[in-house]
Each structure stands twice: as C-alpha cells, then as structure tokens.
Amino acid sequence: YSIENEKYKKEVYSALITVNFEKKKLEQLLKDKGIEFFSKKGPKTLIIPIINFQERLILWDDPNPWFDIWLRRPLDSNLNLFTLPAGEADDLITLSAEDALNLKYFKIKKLAKKYEATQAYILLVNVENINEEFYIRLIAYDGFTQEIIFSTKKEVTDVTVLNNDLNKLADNFADFSDNLWVKDNLDIINKELTMIAEV
To answer: Measuring CA to CA, which residue among 38, 57, 41 is closest to residue 49?
Structure first.
C-alpha cells in the first residue's frame, strides 16, 4: 500500500491510499467493525476557475493564477474526478467569464458535455483592494442547479503570497467536495437499508 496527500482536520482525516486487497473481505471487515464506508469514485466534475481581480473577470485570459493553481494541482488526489477545460478556441467560444459568472446553463452544460463531465462547478475567487489591503473570498456554484454550494469568508491576503492562499482555497474546496460525496452516498446506503428493513 501507499499513502499520499494526507490531510488532518478536527475530527476529519483524508488521504489518497492506494492498496491491493480483496474487496469483499475488506467490506466484510468494515461491516463487522460497524464502520460506515463508501468505496466508489465520485463523478467526473468539470472545474471552471474564474478570478475577479479588482473588478476584472478572468477565465481564459492570461494570467489567471486561480486557473494555474488547479492546473498544477494533482487532480486525481480526490474522490471526485476533477477535470479542467483545456482553454482551446472552441472553449473560449462556448463559454466566456461573464457567461460562467451569470451561470448560463446551456453554455456550461455544453462545455461539460465536451469533457464528458456529469457535474460542473464554477469556482469564483474575488480579490479586492480595500484601503490598501487585499481581501480574498471563494464562492463555488453548481453550474447546473445554479446554487451556491460552498463559500468562504472574506480574508486578508498579501499579493506576494496570493498563490499560497489560492492553493489553500483549492484544497478546502476539494476536501468539501469529497466529504459531500461520501456523505451523500452514505445517506443513500442508509436509506436503502431502512427501506429493506421496512419491507
């Protein structure tokens, strides 16, 4: 086995663990110990990172440090299978930064279909300069339901360490997304067990 990308938080531990095992034996062991689990990978999810830097929206434009963070991030280190648009000419034609910010369903859906993604998240980072201090905030939208699924409080940042702060935001969102996937599927399993008991 190997363990990578370990993350420790209050009452939560996550890591990418690669193991060779007999699935049925492991599942039986977890059941015997009363440990809830879900063993499938999450859906392929298109990440569309936009940065609003002092009221200038940047998606495909260069530089987009928020897009660059996701490009450098190991996309396979999470339960959800994150993918990024390549930024080719047809991507630019399909979806502009304004379209993404306005959550234009059909344009987002078309881009997601191109990348064979079953989900699409618009990750908007706002960077504001207020009284010579920079503030950063992330708001994540589900591109299909148009709902806010994740947000952070406005925090002070320093432009010299902006990349570090953006990296933390990416990690926080990825952890949230993984936890949500596990919770939703544990809920489904528990409902199925309840229904079977009722029958």
So the answer is: 57
Q: Helix, strand, coil % (nearest 5) of the chain?
A: 40, 30, 30
Considering only CA atoms, give the Rg of the chain: 19
Task: Return the axis-axis angle of helices 162-198 and 65-72, rounded to nearest 10°.
Answer: 60
Q: Whose CA is closest to 121, among 150, 94, 93, 95?
A: 150
Under DSSP, the state recorded for 101 is H
- Letter for the amino acid at 196? I
**How far from 199 is each of 34, 167, 193, 194, 196, CA to CA, in Å?**
23, 48, 10, 9, 5
Distance, in Å, from the CA atom of 48 to the CA atom of 115, rounded to the nearest integer, reads 12
The reply to whether the predicted model has a pTM over 0.90 is: no
- For residue 135, give the H/E element and its range: strand 133-142
DSSP state of 116: T
Q: How many CA atoms lie within 13 A of 80 on its CB side?
A: 26
**Residue corresponding to tokens 């420790």:** 8
Q: What is the pLDDT of residues 114-150, one digit of tens each?
A: 999 999 999 999 988 888 788 999 999 999 999 999 9
